[in-house]
Amino acid sequence: MSSQKMIFGLYVIFFSMLSLIGCSVTTEPEETNSLPNNTSVTFTSVQKEVFDKSCALAGCHSGVDAAAGMNLSAGSAYANLINIVSVRNAIFVRVQPGNSANSFIIKMLRNTGENTRIMPPSGTLNESSIQLVENWINNGAKND
User: Fold this and answer.
1) What is the tally of helices (H) and strands (E) in the chain?
2) Residue at 29 is within a domain
3) pLDDT (tens digit, 0 to 9) for every residue of the chain, 144 residues total?
4) Helix (H) or strand (E) holding 29
5) Is the N or the C terminus of the chain less surrounded, counting Cβ atoms within 10 Å?
6) What residue numbers bound the domain in which 102 lies?
């Protein structure tokens, strides 16, 4: 193999690996009833079980350089979600209290077609995590 072909092959491997590294989420097998699925869902539980574990990570939705200006770190997430117009699709707000079906965060998590990207970029969250966010939104998206 010529050295140019070998170098090209190494570049392809390198950039493929970079695209896989990005924002990563480890998806675990879904456990039944692992997260609350009722009206008692609190913002604190969403923060702890979903945002802290899967979104508010370095290079993703954390800090001053958060992706799409949406910092989901503890202490910042709530103010960056409720009735804030989506940067990716301005006809939606990020979270519309009482209406998960019209909340852009759910559209991104479920990849319903309003955007070309799914969140998180490494793959979908497990269903119980998405359901937790939906339940919180549908119950008024209150800050506890």
Assistant:
1) 4, 0
2) no
3) 565 555 544 444 443 333 334 444 444 444 433 444 456 899 999 999 999 999 999 889 999 999 999 999 999 999 999 999 999 999 999 999 999 999 999 999 999 888 877 888 877 899 999 999 999 999 999 999
4) none
5) N
6) 41-144
Nearest to 52 by CA among 74, 22, 21, 33: 74
Tell me if 8 is assigned to some domain.
no
Does 76 map to a domain? Answer: yes
CA–CA gap between residue 14 and residue 66 (Å, rounded): 25
Q: Where are the beta strands (DSSP E) in 47-126?
A: none
How far apart, in whole angstroms, are the C-alpha atoms of residue 106 and residue 130? 7
Sequence letter at residue 20: L
The answer, as to whether pTM is greater than 0.85, is no
